[in-house]
Amino acid sequence: MITKIEKLDNFGRGISYINDKICFIENALPNEEVEIEITKEKKKFIEANTINILESSINRIKPLCPYSNECGGCNISHISYEKENEFKYNKVKDLVNKIINKNIIIKDIIFDKEYDYRNKIVLHGNSKIIGQYKKLTNDIVNIDKCLLVNDKINEIINLLKNNNIEEVTIKTSNDTKQVLVDIKGEINNKDLLLSKVNVLIINNKIYSKDKSIINEIGNKKYYVSKDSFFQVNRFVTKKLYDEVLDIVKEIKPSKVLDLYCGTGTIGIYVSEYCNEIIGIDYNKSNIEDANKNKELNSCNNINFICNKVENKIDEFKDIDLIIVDPPRSGLDAHTREILKEMKSKTIIYVSCDPVTLTRDLKELNDTYNINYIKPFNMFPRTYHCESITILERR
Ligand SMILES: C[S@@+](CC[C@H](N)C(=O)[O-])C[C@H]1O[C@@H](n2cnc3c(N)ncnc32)[C@H](O)[C@@H]1O
After folding, report:
1. pLDDT digit string (tens) for 25-73?
2. CATH topology for 2-60?
3. What is the DSSP letter of 380?
4. Given 35, 212, 217, 247, which is the most exposed site by the fewest CB atoms within 10 A?
5. Could you report how far apart the first and last alpha carbons of the chain are, in Å?
6. Ligand 1 shell residues, CB under 6 Å
7. How far is the CA of 288 from the centre of ligand 1 (A)?
């Protein structure tokens, strides 16, 4: 079947209409004419793969990655980087304009390198290969190199070949000088690996002297352990945190809540410009690292709570600034309600999913003005988009 693509959906798939049904097509770009193979047909929609491109878009590029057809790691590596940034900007703008009926300012998207940006990878394997999962399956694509991660990680991937690895997480510091490797499985070159990395954990046993690596952002240092969260883009994270810092410097808040604080990174980054900060995260490893990070940065005005935000948020009053950085699911209904009641002067909403961001903004919009949204391309070559929204009490 042949069809013409009208636009992209939020996942970077081409959209066309077949027999009045919306059709989502992998690897197809606006204005292209493509031959498709239908993979799923439901009452209201069709899903399909592109099998032949009859008329190609000027924005199409040949993906640099040899695994791009099968690997589920990237989904939009066939679009030029310029168009990818435009796609993400428009995705945020269109979602927000559709759901919130107001002219909200969307600032220019911030981006950096399109490859070599990730400081972390999780790979799966068996006795023969390690690699990423194939798109929408648990089959493994055997990889020698991933273009999204830094060279140090690729070096370690190659040292791990010919082992029996079920799963491995490799993390580096942003300057790539420190490496953490956490393996589930069996390896036959433990000593070699130990000589190349700072932290080696195999089946939960720590073989190295250290159990965390140290990452630097601006003038702050942060411990990151195997189970702790750390932003993956080693270039854009500083730009994101600097945006938060600029706002904090401007408003000079007395009391700050850093919700979904991870290892305390944002709170510590802005700590010199506020009197008191409370960080909340439910992950034990994050909060253990956050407390160490507090010491590491001699930061005496921050305290951390290990709990769910929704369990604790009712306890706070008279907060000048609330920073939220939730997971992709966004804020839960209770947290949204309390944020509305709290009437903090400012909320900085760091989001990694424009869809849940828009849902949350629609509700917060009753109590707060949305000053602007700034998208950040934290995850190049994928459809995911980070952003910062500034809300001010009416
Ligand atoms: C996107 S990360 C942000 C971390 C941090 N702000 C940073 O920049 O590194 C989201 C964090 O939310 C935490 N989290 C997820 N759901 C939570 C909940 N219901 N309550 C508290 N923390 C939660 C996760 O452990 C994770 O650290």
Report:
1. 999 999 999 999 999 999 999 999 999 999 999 999 999 999 988 888 8
2. OB fold (Dihydrolipoamide Acetyltransferase, E2P) (2.40.50)
3. T
4. 35
5. 53
6. 229-231, 260-262, 265-266, 280-283, 286, 308-310, 325-327, 352
7. 14
Tokens (6 digits) for 37: 């193979």
Check pLDDT > 90 for residue 138.
Answer: no
The rounded distance, in Å, linking the Cα atoms of 385 and 91 is 9
Residue 289 sits at the vertex; the CA angle it makes with 285 and 238, to the nearest 5 degrees, is 115
pLDDT attached to residue 112: 98
Q: Which tens digits make up the pLDDT trace of 67-92?
A: 988 888 898 999 999 999 999 999 99
Span from the CA of 283 to the centroid of ligand 1 (angstroms): 8
Report the interhelical angle of 333-342 vs 354-364 (nearest 10°).
40
pLDDT band at 137 (very low <50, low <70, confident <90, very high): confident
- Picking from 148, 131, 116, 130, the residue whose alpha carbon sits closest to that of residue 71 is 131
Q: Kindly report the CATH class assigned to 120-216.
A: mainly beta
Supply the DSSP symbol for 109: P
What CATH number does domain 84-113+233-393 carry, 3.40.50.720, 2.30.30.90, 3.40.50.150, 3.40.50.620?
Answer: 3.40.50.150
Q: What is the DSSP string of 163-177?
A: SEEEEEEEEE-TTS-
Q: Which residue has a Cα nearest atom 19 of ligand 1? A: 308
Site to substitute for ligand 1 among 230, 282, 332, most atoms within 8 A of C-beta:
282
Q: CA angle, corner 329, sides to 328 and 335, nearest 5?
A: 120
Please determine whether the domains at 2-60 and 120-216 fall in the same fold group of CATH: yes
Please state the atom number of ligand 1 nearest to the C-alpha of residue 237: 8
Q: What is the pTM of this model?
A: 0.95
Candidates 265, 311, 325, 357: which one to mutate for ligand 1, based on the most atoms within 8 Å of Cβ? 325
b/e 167-180 (16+ beta carbons within 10 angstroms → b): ebbbbbbbebebbb
Tell me 254's DSSP state. Answer: S
**Residues in a beta bridge with 2:** 35
Q: Sketch the domain layout of the chain as residue ranges.
A: 2-60, 84-113+233-393, 120-216
